[in-house]
Specification:
The complex is a heterodimer.
Chain A (H helix, E strand, L loop, with lengths): L6 H15 L6 H12 L4 H11 L3 H10 L11 E6 L2 H5 L2 H12 L12 E6 L11 E3 L2 E3 L7 H6 L2
Parallel strand pairs in A: 1-2
Antiparallel strand pairs in A: 1-3, 3-4
Chain B lengths: L3 H10 L6 E6 L2 H6 L1 H14 L5 E6 L11 E5 L4 E4 L4 H13 L24 H4 L17 H6 L4 H9 L2 H11 L11 H10 L6 E6 L8 H8 L1 H15 L3 E6 L4 H16 L4 E4 L4 E9 L9 H8 L23 E5 H13 L1 H5 L9 E8 L5 E6 L4 H8 L9 E6 L5 E4 L9 H6 L8 E6 L4 H15 L5 H18 L7 H15 L3 H5 L2 H20 L13 E3 L9 H5 L5 E2 L7 E2 L9 H5 L5 E3 L1
Parallel strand pairs in B: 1-2, 5-6, 5-9, 6-8, 10-14
Antiparallel strand pairs in B: 1-3, 3-4, 7-8, 10-11, 12-13, 12-14, 15-18, 16-17
The chains are: A alpha+beta, B alpha/beta.
């Protein structure tokens, strides 16, 4: 995310992305991925710009944003925690790790801490099942988790 | 690259002699376990000591997840050593004693039993029964260097196809090999290509399904992170066979390392002219674009995936028309799974007869399984079709830990079924698994032991399917939700006697009427667990008890008056004050008020509290 960019700079980056994909077939999802990287999330104002830039109805953009779980209408934290609740992780007790995360952060799944530092999501499978239970914080992967590991990991950020 | 001779020259060029070759496993699991600092430590020491006769490189998934970070050392005589659980400190010792001193550090080498080191991974029980075709290069090459792939005969199959074969010969080879789709459905790959080749159209597409969404599956991730070129080469071969010059790889966004390595691989292949225009000077063009998923399991379904590439909500379409005639952007399209593609180059190079000599009568070749859950050695296992489940779980993966009894193995993820102990000797292939109410699936194999509740597991899978349902067709959108409500009732002690019949009737209707495979297979885990664990369901429904004490709301906590010392610690910590008694006399729990949090059991120092 361009945390230090002004809104004008972000808007300019979005226009560059739209120009890049203008002639690509099925461009909407790649553009939304890059837009979310620029703004951190996809509020209606950004969706409107994408709709106009790609000549796609806003309703279609909104339909796509709300269909896919990776796209968020609400701000995410600077550090996005994604705990896997897939089968292998579930069988090895990931729900206990989730309880500890909720306790340490004071938020529920889908929420963001008041200072904007952490957001918490549960996802279904990160594909690192050999190290179950697993979570990702942005692109860092942590495996073989027990509830006792949570506090130490959060302190790193 | 204009000719096969140029390819061979690159293959010969990279064979420069070194004293030691060091490979650090840096797929997602390796990095998660700490391979980054291990690599940095090797790099630093080699640089500081100015060692010029050492080759250090990253590699993909070596296969044994629980022993990560893994490092492989090859000396100039070709001896191979596998170091496990490596740390920056251990690196310093290995560098000093082995690389510089010439003596392997045996206490850090791989083992079957702790304290009894072996030399390398090939000596382990884990590897002995494996036959690595799809995973042939994983853990051996640097996936970020195309020269490594070429050294291992990479792109010779594409060269052979373009310069020596006709499209229908390629298709016939695939048909003769007996390769069936490794994504789960098991459709014959050669037949799929044949249909698309026969379809009319100037524009056709080759798609790769890298949206490995089955929870518990990581086979495709390992191929993409460890050997991405095997997929690119196979897609180009498929393009030649069906008459297409454009491929799309739909890869899930939850695999950032795989995405990065695919981008690198495509760029390098283009630089060498192995993708793009006029490949090997034969006039054949083929290009590949990546498209990222965005977190929708249903986009692993063939038509939903294509709809997603088109930039829409990932909703499946009715068939007919089949994608071979009318697929992506309305033109003939083939979609194959990553693992299916990973087999193609070897089939072209070694021949259909070689491939079909492995496996069973109707399921040829090997299958990669991602073994996880309650099993001693988790990891990736590639075995010939026809290997028994018992061999996989006990001979290869070390059995069930902590002395627990095996209860069931789940294959096929949320679309699949469970295999109970009575079928441990089943020979794994597509048809044998279907005959017992299970399915091959994409390869996720989750092991459960006596402490898992099969009703809870069924509920877990259905919860996933309900979340992931696209909502287009009522049988899935409404039907699976109704099934989940029944399972919620069963696991919370509110079930009605009719519930088991209701589940079975609903399951049957949904299987017959849902639009796509997600809905049609959603009832499978429920039907399979009812088939083999009916008694467990009946205990939940009739007795309102959970035999494995997993379903919290069915548990009653109980204080043993013989062991209770009346210290009152449990009562003082109970959040709802449901434990009463007098000091130095046994305390009692009021189960009507108890919220089953388990705090009392955790706090009791005398082991007086249990649950049943």
């Amino acid at each position: 995310m361009c945390q230090n960019c002004s809104l004008d700079e972000k808007d300019k980056k979005l226009q560059d992305v739209i120009a890049k994909y203008k002639d690509t077939k099925g461009a909407l999802i790649p553009v939304l991925h890059e837009a979310q990287t620029i703004y951190g999330y996809l509020p209606l104002t950004v969706q409107e710009k994408v709709a106009e830039g790609l000549s796609v109805p806003l309703s279609e953009v909104y339909g796509v944003v709300t269909f896919y779980t990776n796209f968020s209408l609400y701000p995410k934290g600077q550090y996005k925690i994604s705990l896997c609740l897939g089968t292998a992780c579930y069988v090895k007790g990931s729900s206990l790790v989730l309880d500890e995360l909720k306790k340490q952060l004071g938020i529920e799944v889908g929420q963001c801490t008041a200072d904007g530092k952490f957001s918490l999501d549960a996802c279904r499978c990160l594909g690192a099942c050999g190290l179950a239970p697993v979570m990702m914080i942005n692109e860092d992967v942590y495996g073989t988790l027990v509830p006792g590991d949570v506090a130490g990991i959060l302190k790193k950020y | 690259m204009k000719s096969l001779a140029e390819l061979k020259a690159i293959k010969e060029k990279v064979k420069k002699p070194v004293d030691y070759k060091i490979l650090v496993g840096m797929a997602t699991c390796g990095v998660a376990a700490g391979a980054g600092p291990v690599m940095d430590s090797f790099s630093k020491i080699i640089s500081e000591k100015n060692l010029t006769n050492i080759e250090l490189k990253l590699t993909g998934c070596i296969g044994i997840c629980r022993l990560e970070p893994l490092v492989e050392v090859y000396d100039k005589k070709g001896n191979r050593y596998t170091y496990v659980k490596m740390t920056a400190e251990r690196v310093a010792e290995v560098m000093e004693k082995h690389i510089i001193g010439g003596m392997p550090v045996t206490e850090y080498l791989i083992y079957d039993e702790p304290g009894q080191p072996l030399q390398n991974i090939l000596d382990t029980k884990f590897f002995k029964k494996q036959v690595r075709i799809a995973l042939r290069n994983c853990g051996i090459i640097n996936p970020e260097n195309i020269d490594d792939y070429i050294e291992r005969d990479g792109y010779t199959a594409l060269g052979k196809v373009l310069t020596q074969m006709k499209p229908d010969e390629v298709i016939q080879t695939m048909m003769d090999s007996g390769l069936r789709g490794r994504g789960g459905a098991g459709f014959p790959t050669g037949l799929k290509w044949k249909f698309a080749a026969a379809a009319k159209g100037d524009q056709k597409y080759v798609c790769c399904n890298a949206d490995e969404g089955d929870p518990g599956a990581f086979m495709d991730r390992s191929v993409l992170e460890g050997d991405p070129h095997s997929v690119l080469e196979a897609m180009a071969i498929a393009g030649f066979a069906i008459g297409s010059n454009q491929g799309y790889i739909y890869v899930r966004a939850e695999y950032p390392t795989a995405v990065k390595r695919l981008y690198i691989a495509i760029k390098q292949a283009k630089e060498y002219g192995l993708l793009g225009k006029n490949i090997f000077n034969t006039g054949f063009d083929f290009d590949i674009e990546l498209r990222l998923g965005a977190g929708a399991f249903v986009c692993g379904e063939e038509t939903a995936l294509m709809t997603s590439i088109e930039g829409k909500r990932g909703e499946p379409r009715p068939r007919p028309p089949f994608p071979a005639n009318k697929g992506l952007f309305g033109v003939p399209t083939i979609l194959n799974n990553v693992e299916t593609f990973a087999n193609v180059a070897e089939i072209i190079n070694k021949g259909a007869a070689w491939f079909s000599s492995i496996g069973t009568e109707k399921s040829k070749g090997t299958k990669v399984f991602a073994v996880g859950g309650k099993i001693h050695t988790t990891g990736l296992v590639e075995i010939p079709m026809g290997t028994t489940l018992r061999e996989v779980l006990y001979d290869i993966c070390g059995g069930i830990p902590n002395g627990k009894a095996f209860k069931a193995a789940q294959t096929g993820g949320p679309s699949g079924g469970c295999i109970p102990a009575e079928h441990l000797d089943i020979k794994i292939d597509y048809d044998s698994l279907i005959s017992i109410g299970a399915m091959m699936g994409s390869g996720g194999l989750i092991v459960m032991d006596e402490d898992n509740c099969m009703v809870d597991i069924a509920r877990f899978f259905l919860g996933f399917t309900v979340d992931e349902s696209c909502g287009k067709c009522p049988p899935c959108r409404i039907g699976t939700r109704r099934m989940l409500e029944i399972l919620d009732r069963i696991t919370s002690g509110n079930s009605e006697p009719e519930d088991l019949n209701r589940l079975e009737r609903l399951a049957g209707s949904i299987k017959e009427s849902a639009l796509c495979a997600l809905g049609q297979t959603a009832p499978n885990p429920i039907l399979s667990t009812i088939k083999y664990f009916r008694k467990e369901y009946e205990t939940h429904i009739i007795d309102k008890k959970c035999p494995t004490c997993v379903c919290k709301e069915l548990l009653n906590y109980y204080i043993d008056p013989e062991k209770c010392t009346g210290c009152s610690v449990c009562s003082r910590n109970c959040p709802v004050k449901c434990i009463s008694g007098q000091i130095k006399s046994p305390f009692v729990i009021d189960n009507e008020k108890c919220i089953k949090c388990g705090t009392c059991m955790t706090k009791c120092k005398f082991g007086a509290i249990s649950r049943k």
